[in-house]
Design goal:
The protein is of the alpha+beta class and 231 residues long. The protein has five helices and eleven strands. The strands form two sheets. Strands 2-3-4-5-1-6-11-10-9 form a nine-stranded antiparallel beta sheet. β4 (76-81) and β5 form a beta hairpin. The chain is globular and about 55 Å long.
Length: 231
């Protein structure tokens, strides 16, 4: 549904692939060699300054981005940490069929070079129909004592498990999206769907399912009235 909405609220979609071994730097070099003729440039990020021994001793540092590949005029970019890579599509969203092609190309290139143990698909939506702070239009009811929380600043995180997939839902309001001239404020609805892996074959089998569960969760969290405003 999200990809078919004429006014889709998606500001970024991220597919993340994680590994048990520190193969991120190697995969960065592999993808850069493949993508440089398409105009992609490599950017060294602050995480690249962290010694590998420190990363091995502190698992929290594994989430630091070390390198980034991007190209002028393209809204698909790639990021690499010591134990992960991501394929990111920034606004405007190109739709699932095209985004999946980008993922498939990466998988084809690296599948005999490493062994993944987890992947996830994350949709970050920016809702501006109602003036922030607001959770109007989201199927969420919060009460603090005898007061209903509806137009108060908040940031909540919920973790759920359904059908063998983990989902992390975050809602934050008010939030400003960087890069906009007017710094418009709104509400972020962030949905990440996660699956553990035994190898690349599971990606081939379950990537569309991962997407379907992500969209089902979005549609379940948005009211019919708000959904109609995006069509």
């Amino acid at each position: 549904m999200v990809g078919k909405l004429s006014k889709a609220p998606v500001i970024e979609v991220i597919w993340r692939l994680g590994f048990e071994e520190p193969v991120g730097d190697m995969l960065h070099g592999l993808l850069f060699f493949d993508l440089k003729d398409k105009g992609y440039v490599s950017r060294k990020m602050p995480g690249a300054e962290i010694p590998e021994v420190a990363i091995l001793n502190d698992p929290g540092l594994r989430n630091m981005v070390r390198y980034r590949l991007d190209a002028e005029g393209r809204n698909v970019l790639f990021q690499f940490g010591s134990h992960f890579l991501t394929v990111n599509c920034q606004k405007p969203y190109i739709g699932w069929p095209e985004f999946k092609k980008e993922i498939d190309q990466v998988v084809k290139l690296i599948r005999d070079k490493c062994r993944p143990n987890v992947h996830s698909l994350r949709y970050i939506n920016f809702l501006t129909v109602y003036d922030a702070p607001s959770i109007e239009g989201i199927n969420l009811k919060l009460e603090l004592g005898d007061k209903e929380i509806k137009r108060d600043p908040l940031h909540i995180r919920v973790e759920q498990e359904e059908n063998g997939f983990d989902q992390v839902i975050q809602i934050a309001t008010p939030i400003s999206v960087p890069g906009s001239l007017e710094q418009q404020q709104g509400t972020v609805l962030d949905i990440e769907t996660i699956q553990s892996l035994r190898g690349f074959d599971q990606i081939d089998e379950n990537l569309d399912l991962l997407h379907s569960y992500a969209i089902e969760k979005f549609e379940g969290l948005i009211s019919v009235e708000l959904l109609e405003k995006f069509e």
